[in-house]
Amino acid sequence: MKQYVKFNKSLNINKNSEIPYYFQLKKYIINEIESSQWKPGEQVMPEIKICELLDISRTVVRQTFQELVNEGYLIKKKAKGTFVSEPKISENLIQSLMGFFEDMTARGYKVENDILLHKKTSASEKIAKFLNINAGDEIIVIRRLRKIDGEPIVLDKTHIPYNLCPNLLNENLYNKSLYSYIEGNYNLRIDRGIRYIEATLATEEEAKFLKVNKGSPLLFIESIGYLDNGTPLEYYTALHRGDRIRMVTELKRVKHFDSIGSIPPDSNLSGILVKE
Q: Beta strands of 123-244 (E only): which ranges?
């Protein structure tokens, strides 16, 4: 017999209240999760049973569940049911120029890198433009599946000019920070970066690597990292699981663009961009 999370016997949907039924139920479930009465991974009873328990329609329960799934409190698993989600992992990648490995290990997580690709190749015109090199110049390409405590979280790809750190081609990066390795072995100082962030959906290949369903929401990050002398070091793209990651940043109000920093006005990187 399946074990489901427990609904408090005192729970009643107030049919005389102006507060919508679904919102009353939603508020109750959020409170149970945030107070740790319902634990991550525990299964919620089927919709029809909740309807019978609370004498409400299935439409009400479905709306409640859908909003809680959208907000990250619940997760639906095909042919299995609805479960309490694992808490999301916060990242500071949009606030400070830390690598994923550095950020996560500083928070106490165990990070592993499955190296999917690690080779020398020729830069395409697109990559060359980002790295301020010539098309055809040698670069090192590294594709990694990043895991936290054994769970796949990020699928990324890095492009670095070969002449800046040639021995990187032979380095084992399974449990190392790329940034720390570069700074420690080549006397290079990584100074700043520019990052685009947007929402996307997992392709079949990406879903397979990240252990999610095809079409699941992902956060796509595109980044250029610069050395302290202004030389582009890295062109980087990454796909972060939307169900397990949230980006955190601290903002300071400014009244003039010039106060924000050194992002070139023609870089298309300042403010909010509207995709055509």
A: 138-148, 151-161, 190-201, 217-227, 232-241
- Domains for the chain: give ranges and CATH numbers: 21-84 (1.10.10.10), 89-267 (3.40.1410.10)
147 within 8 A of 103, measured Cβ to Cβ: no
pLDDT confidence of residue 265:
47
Residue 84 makes CB contacts below 8 A (sequence gap 6+) with 5, 33, 38, 39, 40, 41, 42, 43, 44, 73, 74, 75
Q: Quote the pTM value.
A: 0.69
Cβ(202)–Cβ(218) under 8 Å? yes
H or E element: which one contains 122? strand 111-122
> pLDDT (tens digit, 9 = 90+) per residue, 166-208?
999 988 888 888 888 898 899 899 888 888 889 999 999 999 9
**Calpha distance 193→235 (Å, rounded):** 10
Q: Provide the residue type at 168 as one letter.
A: L
What residue type is 208 in one-letter code? K
Tokens coding 86: 């694992």
- Identify whether the C-beta of residue 85 lies closer than 8 Å to the C-beta of residue 40: yes
